[in-house]
Amino acid sequence: MAKKIFITITCLFIGLSIVFYASQYDKITSLNDTKESTKETVKKEPKKETKETKLPGKLNDWELLLVNEQHKIKEEPKNLKELPDGHKVDSRIYEPYLSLVEGAKKAGYELTVISAYRSVAEQEAIVERDTEENLYQGVPEDEAKKKAMEYLTVPGLSEHHTGLALDVLDVKWYQEGKMLEEGFGETEAGKWLDENACHYGFVIRYQKGKEKITGINYEPWHIRYVGKENAEYMTKNHLVLEEYVDQLKK
Q1: What is the pLDDT along the chain (250 residues), one digit of tens a residue?
Q2: Residue 188 — φ and ψ, nearest 5°?
Q3: pTM value?
């Protein structure tokens, strides 16, 4: 009888041992599977992009010359070339501007130049002329020049000294007796110019909403050559030249 009990207890002990070791094996196997799964997850996780956006321009590019209230022109251009209408521009933007004119013509708009290159001396004469005109219209003397400067820049600080900027209008708008007015930006020609000038290397230099940055009121007629790649980048990212130059400095 005692022998049977001993055998029974021994069998139970062996059985419990088998169950215990089997459960431990399952735990170890499960843990190893979890570790392998984690490794796979880490391997499959995409690498983060750390490369910064490369800008198309460089600070010393001639077409990115910055002239504004803080940057006076150091030297007036000598490589000027006359457009078919007699206005002068930097010779390097002669062909790009004619291409812009041709592009506008194909779209149904005829561009005319109101102003292009102006020397510092010519700018001084324009300021004096507009001031005198305001005085003639009855504007008080202490306000006449201030009013003239609303759409003019101090001689030496005008982009027109660079030969890289032009004031252009649609011929129909001009023939209606309208001149350099904000309303031009709402015309079909003005909208086309705003959207497509970049494809020829130009930008609308003084954008609406950027007046505090440029120091100049919105001028939908004032285009500035900055090079095609720069122009398309600036237009896509809604940047004026000051902002773009700041990005290039970083």
Answers
A1: 554 554 555 545 455 454 444 455 454 445 455 445 444 444 444 444 344 678 999 999 999 999 999 999 999 999 999 999 999 999 999 999 999 999 999 999 999 999 999 999 999 999 999 999 999 999 999 899 999 988 788 999 999 999 999 999 999 999 999 999 999 999 999 999 999 999 999 999 999 999 999 999 999 999 999 999 999 999 999 999 999 999 999 8
A2: -65, -40
A3: 0.75
Are 87 and 166 in contact by the 8 Å Cβ rule? The answer is yes
CA atoms within 13 A on the CB side of 17: 6
* Six-digit token string for 71: 């940057």
191 burial via Cβ count (<10 Å: 0-12, 13-18, 19+): middle
Distance between CA 155 and CA 76 in Å, rounded?
12
- Backbone dihedral angles phi then psi of residue 100, each to the nearest 5 degrees: -65, -45
Catalytic residue selected from 82, 176, 188, 219: 219
159 catalytic per annotation: no
SS3 string, 196-216, reads: HHHHHCEEEEECCCCHHHHCC
Hunting for tokens 């010519």 — which residue is that? 122
Half-sphere exposure of residue 75, counting CA atoms within 13 Å on the CB side? 4
CA distances from 10 to 15, 16, 18, 19 (A): 9, 10, 12, 14
Judging by beta carbons within 10 Å of its beta carbon (0-12, 13-18, 19+), is residue 170 exposed, middle or buried?
buried
Q: What value, to the nearest 5°, has the Cα angle with vertex 219 and ends 217 and 195?
A: 130
Which secondary-structure segment (H or E) carries 219?
Answer: strand 219-225
Instruction: Please give the distance of CA 190 from its chain centroid, rounded to a whole number.
Output: 19
